[in-house]
From TrEMBL:
Requisite cofactors: Mg(2+)
Keyword Cell membrane appears in the UniProt entry: no
Class of this enzyme: transferase
Key words, A-Z: Allosteric enzyme, Glycosyltransferase, GTP-binding, Nucleotide-binding, Transferase
Family per similarity comment: Belongs to the UPRTase family.
Residues in Phosphoribosyltransferase domain copies: 11-215
UniProt-listed PANTHER family: ADENINE PHOSPHORIBOSYLTRANSFERASE, URACIL PHOSPHORIBOSYLTRANSFERASE, CHLOROPLASTIC
GO-annotated molecular function: GTP binding; uracil phosphoribosyltransferase activity
SUPFAM superfamilies in the record: PRTase-like (SSF53271)
Protein name in the entry: uracil phosphoribosyltransferase
Alphabetical list of InterPro entries matching this protein: PRTase-like (IPR029057), PRTase_dom (IPR000836), UPRTase/APRTase (IPR050054)
Pathway: Pyrimidine metabolism; UMP biosynthesis via salvage pathway; UMP from uracil: step 1/1
Source organism of the structure: Trichophyton violaceum
UniProt keyword Glycosyltransferase present: yes
């Protein structure tokens, strides 16, 4: 690679992920197969990212089916927001919060068209509805513009930390996303491709992953 990736970018080395990503790259994969692979890869990336960024705290007492008492466990921080970028992010997870962003075809700049992040200001004007940890989910980071816009939006919303999870990113796109809020963001990706073409598509990439995920007829779009 031409440049070293920033310290807040983490590339998975999981062997199962590498095999599944190779299958996902294929233009022969049906829409159903694409959905299954995206979900499976997202699960692996999520487990790796959460292991480093989420802790376990003791919870309430409970009993087993045999009547033995035990202490439950809970996740900390307890205020976490899953935020997929519409529409392709929905292929990775079901979520409560959504950000709708698309790339303007000519400039490739992000345009926000939907945002359902709640806002509840307290007495000092701080948004008490903001999560402590936000997890942004988008299968592909190509130019990095959409990722950067999403990070900026969530930072303005009031989150303390952000995990950005993607299946594949371009080298330049990952650097741009990671640099948007270096001290508050960690980017976790399944793999890195070097090139982005004039249309903003990663090479060799995954094609238009949104079209592949939501094609009713199972048509794939590759480029």
């Amino acid at each position: 690679m031409s440049q070293t990736l920033p310290k807040n970018v983490h590339v998975s080395r999981h062997p199962c992920l590498r095999v599944k990503l190779s299958q996902l790259r294929s233009g022969k994969a049906s829409s159903r197969e694409t959905n299954d692979l995206v979900h499976e890869i997202a699960t692996i990336i999520g487990c790796e990212a959460f292991a480093d960024n989420i802790s376990v705290a003791p919870g309430e007492k409970n009993t087993t089916p045999l009547g033995y008492e035990y202490t439950t466990s809970s996740i900390t921080p307890d205020k976490i927001a899953l935020v997929p970028i519409l529409r392709s992010g929905l292929g990775m997870v079901n979520a409560v919060h959504h950000l709708g962003l698309f790339r303007e075809p000519t400039t490739l700049e992000p345009v926000e068209y939907y945002n359902n992040l709640p806002f509840q200001p307290n007495s000092t004007g701080v948004n008490s509805a903001a999560a402590k940890l936000a997890i942004i989910i988008d299968p592909v980071v190509a130019t990095g513009s959409t990722a950067s816009a999403a990070i900026q939006t969530l930072r303005e919303w009031g989150v303390e930390r952000i995990l950005f999870l993607c299946i594949l990113g371009s080298h330049a796109g990952l650097i741009k996303a990671a640099g948007e809020w270096e001290e508050g963001v960690q980017v976790w990706t399944g793999a890195v491709d070097e090139q982005v073409d004039m249309k903003g598509m990663i090479q060799p990439g995954l094609g238009d992953i949104g079209d592949r995920l939501f094609s009713a007829g199972g048509r794939t779009s590759v480029s």
